[in-house]
Amino acid sequence: MTSTTLSAPASAPERTAPARGPAAARARRKRVLHWIAVHSVAIAVALLFVLPFVFVFLTSVMSDSQAMSGDLWPDAWHWSNYKEVFETPGFLDWWRNSLLYAGLGTLFTVCSAIPVAYALAKFRFRGRRTAMLLVISTMMLPPQVIVIPMYLVWAQQFHLSGTLWPLIIPMAFGDAYSIFLLRQFLLTIPKEYIESAKVDGCGEFRTMVKIVVPMAKPGIAAIALFQFFYCWNDYFGPQIYAAQNPGAWTLSYGLESFKSAHSVNWNMTMAATLLVMAPVIIIFFFAQKAFVEGVTLTGVKG
Amino acid sequence: MAISLSNPARRRLRTLGFLSPWLVGFSVFFAYPLIATVYFSFMHYNQIKEPTFVGLRNWKYVFEQMPLFGPALWNTLWLVVIMVAVRVVFGLSLGLLITKIKTGAGFFRTAFYLPYLAPPVAATVAFVFLLNPGTGPVNEILSSIGISGPNWFNDPDTAKPSLVLLSLWGIGDLMVIFMAALLDVPKEQYEAADLDGAGPFAKFRYVTWPAITPIVMFAVVTGVVQTMQYYTQALVAGKVASGVNIGPGSVIQPGYPDHSTLTVPQLVYQMGFQNFNTGAACVLSLVLFAIAMAVTMLLMHKRSGLLAAED
Fold first, then answer.
1. What is the location of CATH 1.10.3720.10 in chain A?
2. For the region Disordered, what residue ranges are annotated (chain A) (predicted)?
């Protein structure tokens, strides 16, 4: 599929002679009413989507007592709440662990997905369809199904429980979702480019590095982003492997203990909550296009 | 290469080389643990002493005696049916709305999409606060217009609907998929329908719906598979709403209030990592696996765009 541009089709100004008469006036009135109806609904719905962020933010700068009161607007703006969150013991470690997990996990995923997706998209070999079916089956597998034997291996054979490595290392061996997504993208690259590289005497590997990777940048960006977010948001993984060792907690996992430690301070909890959300939201604003590319790739026929 | 190979053999080796990361990953991180899960489901194993074979005892225990299995399965299936249905309807409605917006489309798209990116833990903690019956802003607003709000996450009857509400806040991914599908419907068909004098409902029924059915299928199936794994939001909502001072790792009865938010994956965790009942945990895993696989088969059968673009 061609990358769907996300701009909704603008209504082209009608290039007809200025319409006259009651029928034209009625049509125009109908159009205006339609515009008003659509946009009022949109504004109402958008408010519902944005307000949670607004309330979370407003609560995060309230005083302890006001945050408990159900008030909507802070009497005084306590920016120091954020400073206090950062001074919470361990908070900076969680930050570091989250970045480590998400950063390395993304790097490993991208490096392992490129050759596999390339082979699945462009090579002809027996069992290609079966391989694809297996990739999709892995994608559909709830992580809880295999977690117990996996945990036993990491904990008993490798003594790596209490670290994030059991979550990071597997990503060097292909993540099904990323392989699937990247393959869908690579299918759209015309064969001719690859063939002409071969005519010029490139081997498969050089073709991949020199031709395919540069052409697949948007697809690669999409899987990198998705994987980064997946790791950043992951709760179940750190709960399994890092629970006993607070030094290995990630932000997503630590947030809950933060809530327990500040059980009555909704303002602190909301400040921390916003800080956990902030990186993904900032990244999104910088990489909006890559995202949309990825999301539409999943659901749209190649 | 020192050894000269015939061309097909070389090609096969090269294919294997490119696929090797995934071949290793598939065997080590998928096939092996799956077989081991089946193996442990017939064993008594407390993760300290050597496992001993007990036949079908774990299976019998889960299906006949385990007190929480019924509620957990019921909650999971409830969420699979209701949450997926509501999400698909809402996602499609938003997709339709966004394709009709002519002014400020970029702003609206971002507003609808952004919450989807919020980490599930953060979004859940935020919602538990917003919907907090005593001090939350939502009930505060409701009472100011004369409505006494429900107890949301603190009432067994409304806890699951509250989770559905939370999932609707994160509808962005579905919205974008539907939007792309709606924009791909050929315009000529709408024009033809216009000439035939079709109203908006007839247009949706005879033009839009047939064109987007595969995507709706896709959304339903992936939604079911995702909801089968529904874990983080339910667990965190229960813990935070219960207000108990619990750090991570502490053992509590999950599913507050009254097991109404207990899902099968939570039970897997509880059995495997808190009660050290490996056998029962593996049986529960396989129940999840069976349902997820059944849905996947359905998907393969329907070919809803997932395996399209073969050649």
1. 89-298
2. 1-22
A112, A134, A141 ranked by CB distance to B21: nearest: A112
Chain B within 8 Å of A167 (Cβ-Cβ)? no
Residues of chain B contacting residue A145, judged by C-beta atoms under 8 Å apart? 34, 37, 285-286, 288-289, 292
A86 touches chain B (CB under 8 A): no
The identity of residue A233, as a single letter, is: N
Q: Which residue has the tokens 């990592």?
A: B273
A101 touches chain B (CB under 8 A): no
A45 touches B: beta carbon within 8 Å: yes
Under the banding of pLDDT at 50, 70 and 90, the label for residue B1 is very low
Dig out the tokens for A287 from the structure.
Answer: 């990489």
pLDDT digits (tens, 9 = 90+) for A73-100: 888 888 899 998 998 888 999 999 999 9
- Asked if CATH classification 3.40.190.10 holds for the domain at B69-244+252-262, the reply, yes or no, is no
Q: Is the dihedral of CA B98, B99, B101, B102 positive or negative?
A: positive
Cβ neighbour number for residue A297 with a 10 Å cutoff = 26
Is the pTM higher than 0.85? The answer reads yes
Query: So what's the pLDDT on residue B302?
Result: 59
Chain A contact set for B40 (CB, 8 A): 148-149
CATH class of A89-298: mainly alpha
SS3 B43: strand
